[in-house]
Amino acid sequence: MSTTWHVLGAGSLGTLWATRLARAAVPVRLIVRDSTRLQAYQAAGGLTLVEHGAELRFPVPAETPDSQAPIHRLLVACKAYDAEQAVAQLAPRLAPDAEVILLQNGLGSQDAVAAQVPQARCIYASSTEGAFRDGDWRVVFAGHGFTWLGDASHPVAPIWLDDLDAAGIPHEWSTDILTRLWRKLALNCAINPLTVLHDCRNGGLQAHHCEVATLCGELIELLERCGQPAAAENLQQEVERVIHATAANYSSMYQDVNNRRRTEISYLLGHACKVAARHQLNLPHLNQLESRLISRLHSLGLPSD
Ligand code: NAP
To answer: Domains along the chain?
Structure first.
């Protein structure tokens, strides 16, 4: 019998992973916030995956954090700003050999979680899959993509990657996961805040070429200073390619702001500015971008952390 996956957070990515694991008959359990959410989940009768217009429901068993059974494998699928506290709650349940897989975007939350659970092996993930909720306990698989997983302190791949093969979750073990996460963070810093400030789709940034180029220059300085030169290679060309290839899309930060949801700014642009300050690196345009974004969030009545 293979090890049970505990999925913490029944949002977009948590549901996408839990339903695909359940579809492959891999044992999986969902951890929801509290007994009210558990009752609501049980009334709904399971998680629904909507893919290519077809709906499939999976009655994945669920529990609350204060359930007693030990956890050997935990997939953390909440937002970066919730991850540390959500995992801290579960720390007493983690078995001595526990593995914790972190799906959060950006950087900063992973280290905060790892510090909460020093006994566990923490595996960081970077995903280009896209999903959104079109109702409680339902997810629409909107963008097929890829997930890289890695452990910065231990290069050997875990055996449970077989479960991902069985579940049809495209993935690769990465020995440079931090470089991948930094690269994605840099792309995000060069694109997402500007789409909010200029109130535009990604393609709208083609009209702000100089501003994007200046930010890329500062991001390259930052990546080189913090020991991530590979993440800096051809950054500007890739930023321009992404702006062009996704011209019709709204960035995830734009969508959060538009839907009046809290953004993950502290783990993206905020993290970049914090690391630059730690290295005593003066990056005026990046700092100004952060101030402008924080002011915009304040003016909209949204949290700025
Ligand atoms: P989401 O839809 O907002 O889901 C987060 C879930 O975590 C929510 O269901 C929330 O519960 C739950 N949660 C928070 N605190 C909890 C706690 N203490 N106990 C139990 N559950 C808790 O977020 P998401 O879009 O899946 O994103 C998750 C992470 O993946 C983010 O860092 C995001 O940037 C990254 N990511 C997402 C995508 C995507 O396409 N969605 C793609 C790549 C990366 P409630 O429902 O009760 O609020």
So the answer is: 5-175 (3.40.50.720), 179-299 (1.10.1040.10)
For the chain, list the strands marked E by DSSP. Answer: 5-8, 28-31, 47-51, 54-58, 62-63, 71-76, 94-102, 121-127, 130-135, 138-143, 147-150, 171-173
Atom 42 of ligand 1, residue of closest alpha carbon: 130
Pocket test for ligand 1, best of 12, 37, 184, 263 (most atoms within 8 A of CB): 12
Q: What percent of the chain has pLDDT over 90?
A: 99
Q: In whole angstroms, how far apart are CA 49 and each of 46, 120, 133?
A: 10, 30, 10
- Per-residue pLDDT at 109 exceeds 90: yes
* 60 within 8 A of 23, measured Cβ to Cβ: no
Q: Give the integer Cα–Cα distance in Å for 110 and 113.
A: 5
Distance of alpha carbon 191 from alpha carbon 272, whole angstroms: 14
The ligand 1 atom nearest the CA atom of 82:
15
Ligand 1 atom closest to the Cα of residue 131 is: 40
Closest CA to 198 of 300, 293, 270, 299: 293
Instruction: Say if residues 116 and 90 touch (Cβ distance below 8 Å).
Output: no
* The model's pTM: 0.97
